[in-house]
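Table S2 (continued). Query chain:
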Amino acid sequence: QVQLVESGGGLVQPGGSLRLSCAASGSIFSLNVMGWYRQAPGKQRELVAVITSGGSTNYADSVKGRFTLSRDNAKRAVYLQMNSLKPEDTAVYYCHLVFQGPQKWYDYWGQGTQVTVSS
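Corresponding output:
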């Protein structure tokens, strides 16, 4: 059973920084994509950033230049460094993992971690 365990959310003032971590356990194919999505109250879940096992990244326009996503394949973990945080970054952040198995695609979600940006 694959599990994603997140950590690092919290309350921060505008302009501050936070680092989110997500570690995967279980049977995972080495070729995969991991990343973060977020959902604010009353809004749909949206992509924040994703990274392939080869290190290619994709960011939402709203976070480019402020957030950096990295991964450690040996630890099966991804890290989202969030700088220059804005109130509009407030949301529940979800870690996501997707990979293709022999016969189908698999995708998994973490339980979510709250990020609140407020003075």
